[in-house]
DNA sequence: GTCTATACAGTGATAGAC
DNA sequence: GTCTATCACTGTATAGAC
């Protein structure tokens, strides 16, 4: 793997763990096995490297979600698959984590990929829910846009509760609770 | 207001905005209008001051939640009141925010008040949902513990989506979506 | 209790040699 | 492209005077 790639994936890893504020160029160089001069040759500075790394993580998150949401099965099945897929719950969401970082939120260049990723996710979930409504899987009264936001929020909030607890349990409970509400035993 | 109090509430403010990793003793002294020596006279260091400040924020969050959850009305009404109460959505949750901080999660002393606050909140919501079941407000099939986790997660995740978007809208959508699911128009 | 002085590592970057 | 040197600044304290 080339130096540039190691710098990017090193930055992705550290941004995930420590956020932008908590990640220093030196720490990135260390995990990437690259020197000071090497990093500043490839990137103008911390912000530029972070921008690239965040973009990379955003792509990964979209691809991972699309794997279930665009897969086979009914709308209900695809949502259940998305909710139930294996996750590193205690690490949290690599993109959602950045919404807590003051400097990411303050810098339009850094916030953009974060905003776009969640816009995409909510839009994609809205489509799947709407599709399920048309097929009679969901009641006519269900609002797809609201429901999509709720689904995304349960996952992001589940990570928060799990990290706070130091255990994946609250995440699993929240997801099961949402599943129950979406699939009432009429 | 005395110096100690100004230091504590200054730390609360900065921890909310920037997290533990992003908050320096010097910055706290600045917003508190206190000198270096003054801070280190009252607190052993950054971690100890943070511990006190987090405990204070935890109390505040509990009190705010209990205002609606322990108020008048049916279980459904109290949950709706809790969900709908006015919030500084773009600032996020002062306690939930800390679950993203690597050094808070890593230090048992700092994580404890965060963990306890969410344990309390989920427990309190569990009680209210259970009460609603007994009164026939919620279906017999509803699991109180799961539902409680889902409610807490929607709020925490709503903050994440809102900060990512730079707008309270996703938070409001997520909460409305949850409300719809909890109050189906049978 | 509060102040100033001092210390020493880390941050984020630039300069110039190789 | 990568390395080492250097820099001004901040982070997190400690020491001792007042």
UniProtKB/TrEMBL annotation, chains A, B:
Keywords: DNA-binding, Transcription, Transcription regulation. One of its GO terms (molecular function) is DNA binding. Residues 24-43 bind DNA. Pfam families: TetR_C_13, TetR_N. The keyword Transcription applies. Residues 1-61 form the HTH tetR-type domain. It comes from the Bacteria. PANTHER family: HTH-TYPE TRANSCRIPTIONAL REGULATOR LMRA (PTHR47506:SF3), TRANSCRIPTIONAL REGULATORY PROTEIN (PTHR47506). This is AcrR family transcriptional regulator. It comes from Kribbella solani.
